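R.M. (postdoc): so does anyone remember the format we settled on? I'll just put the structure tokens first.
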């Protein structure tokens, strides 16, 4: 019996865009994955974890990805430019989110939230 092929680019995209609700974990491991449910419970914090997981997924070598997720699929992963684009956008979005969180924290800490 062949298992469905898990697309690395799609998993990285899910982690980048929907990482806060654990969509990538549900895609890779199904409804029984406790970490996926943990993403939903810890939604605001898990958004940042989603960015990191997207980078980890995308930077995993294809051979290691296939050994871990596509052992019985009968197909091999061939990452291309679309994955690179997802990673660049993820890195940029994650950097913006971290800078915004730091700026808002300092705003609240030093001005009492006077700037919004």
């Amino acid at each position: 019996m062949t298992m469905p092929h898990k697309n690395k680019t799609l998993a990285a995209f899910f982690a980048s865009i929907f990482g806060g609700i654990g969509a990538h974990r549900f895609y890779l491991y199904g409804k029984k994955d406790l970490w996926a449910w943990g993403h939903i419970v810890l939604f605001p914090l898990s958004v940042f974890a989603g960015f990191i997981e997207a980078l980890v997924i995308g930077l995993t070598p294809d051979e290691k990805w296939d050994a871990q997720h596509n052992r019985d699929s009968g197909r091999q992963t061939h990452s291309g430019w679309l994955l690179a684009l997802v990673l660049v956008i993820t890195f940029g979005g994650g950097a913006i989110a971290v800078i915004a969180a730091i700026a808002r924290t300092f705003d609240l800490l030093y001005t009492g939230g006077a700037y919004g």
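R.M.: ...and that's the designed sequence above, right after the tokens. Also worth knowing: The chain has one domain: 8-111. Residues 8-111 form one domain.
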